[in-house]
Every structure is written in structure tokens, then in C-alpha cells.
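Work Package 3 (structural annotation) set out to generate three-dimensional models for the target panel prioritized at the project kickoff. During this period the team completed the workflow that converts sequence records into C-alpha cells, so that structures can be stored uniformly alongside our sequence database. As a representative example, we reproduce one entry of 337 residues exactly as it appears in the project archive.
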Amino acid sequence: MNLKAGIGFQTREQSLTIAKYPQLAEEEGFDGIVWLSDSQLIWRDVYVCLTLALERTRTVRLGPGVTNPITRDISVTASTIASLDELSPGRVVLGMGVGDSAIHTLHRAPASLQELKNAVLNIRKLLGGEDVLVGNKKIKLAWCKRKIPIYIASTGPRSLRLAAEVADGVIVNVGAHAEFVEWAMGQLEEGVRSVGRSMEDLDVWLRVICYPDRDEAKAREMIRGAAATKANGLARYAKDDSFRKHLPKDLMEYIDRMAKEYDYYEHGKLRAKHAASVSDNIMDYLVVAGQPSSCVSKLEDLVKTTGLSQIMFSTFEFPDMSSYIKVLGREVVAPLR
């Protein structure tokens, strides 16, 4: 099948501990991008963790997965990501989004899509040594002239189309159901056509939350909080008719409820209070959990149906991350190769 596998980690543990996980993932055969989350009030600083991870790895690419233009000024992001690229040229990427837990824990509004678009275009210019207009004044990154791929994490229709128009790559973040992914791919195709690009111009990764365990009940329990987080992520777009109409009624009702109940200070936690109401049926729409062989089977069907062969496995507050990486790499990723 020739699956390409990336992985994402929340920076909730000590920085030196977080830095070991990309190294282990590389050793276990993950050959895609390793993403580290950016959420300043609930986790460690992403760029400290990325610096340490770059020193411990040799082949995988790494980047913030994802940062935003609200909590980090574009000049700071451009300078920081360029400095990281100096440590290991060609292995650094930049992931951008409108902002999630980094924004909501501050009780601020996410960036608009126009603000995100401007940020992507202007960071690219700054990295290339070009002038950027801020207000009515020009700024530039005086020491830098680099080309670093910029990815946008996207869920809703307008965000997906924007990513297709301006980004080098996209993290498709719509859950683990083939129908949802096919819908998202349609949005990307519409976006590239609108600006005269093709899908070949876009590096597309599907974000999947997967927990394999020989004890299926345990696997589902380990990932229930992640399913709640995924449902909350979908809630932002639940008022968009083009988005709602492709979602099953029971999932739509759950998403609407989660939008009211979700606690961002428990974002991604294993036993978050808001996870208690996640049913097995809801989980099947959003995540992949169960015995390793059943995870392989579901992912295999997903890849064959959608044509996507690049998966970013997103991790949460799993109790033994090192063991999780080994099981995922050996018993799920390897059979999909």
C-alpha cells in the first residue's frame, strides 16, 4: 500500500521527555512529518521542544502542528522557523491554523480566514527576504532568505479551499470516516481549480486519531477523550449548511452539544469530563480504535476509498507514549506499508 506515516504530539510533558518521542517515532519507521502542538497556557513551548527534537533526529521533518497568527506575530514566527531550519536545513515545516486551545484559553477569538491567508502569504515573503507591508510601513527579515513549506490545518469548507489556494500542504482534519474525507478532498479540488493549481501542487495529509490495543474496550476508553476533542473541532463549522448536510444526524446532534460542554483547560485529556458522553457510535465516525488488526483493516479501507496514502497519527494524553509509538509503528503502520 506504500503508506507514508507522520505523527503529532501534544507538548504536555517536560520538554526533554517530549523530544524523545520524535526520535523513537523515527526509529520505529515513521517517515513523514512529526508535528508538535502549540498551546502556551496548557502545554510546554513548542519551539523549545522542536529544537530539542531536531537535535535528536536525523531524517523526519518537524514543525509546529499548528501555530496561529493571533498568539504569535508573523515576524516572530518567520524568524523562529527560519532559525530552526538552520539547525537542520530541509527538515523543518511550518503548520498554521486559525487557533484552537491556544486562543480559547485566552478567551479570544480565532483568526479569520483572511487573517490566516495574510499570515501565510506574508510569512512566505519574509522567509524569502521580501518586504511585507504592516499597516503603512514595510518590514523585512533582514538575515534570512529561505524556502520553508507552509501547511494549513483545515476542517471546514472555506478553510479547506483556502489551504488549496495558498498553502504548500494541508492537514485534513475531518475525522476517520471515508465519506467525510471524500467531501474534504472535493473542497480541496475546488480550491486548487479556482487559482489554476492542481492537486499535485498540494502535499495532503489526513489527520487520524488511532489507538490500537489487544483489549478493544481499553482501546476505546483510551481514545474517548480524543473523540470529544475531535467533535468539538467540528463544532466550529456546524452552522455551515454545506458542512452539516454530509454529517449523520446523531453525530450532528452530539457536535452541537459538545460545543456547549467542552472545557479547553481539559483539551486532549484522557479523562476529561466532557468525554463521558461520547458513545461508541460517535467514536466510529471520528477515530480509529480497537485491536491492531481491526485498526489496520479500517485504515486500509480508508486509504483505498479516498486515495490518500499520507496519514498523520495524532496522539493525546496516552499513559505510556513510548509503548504506544512502538505498537502503532509495528502493528499498524508496518502492515500498511
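The radius of gyration is 19 Å.
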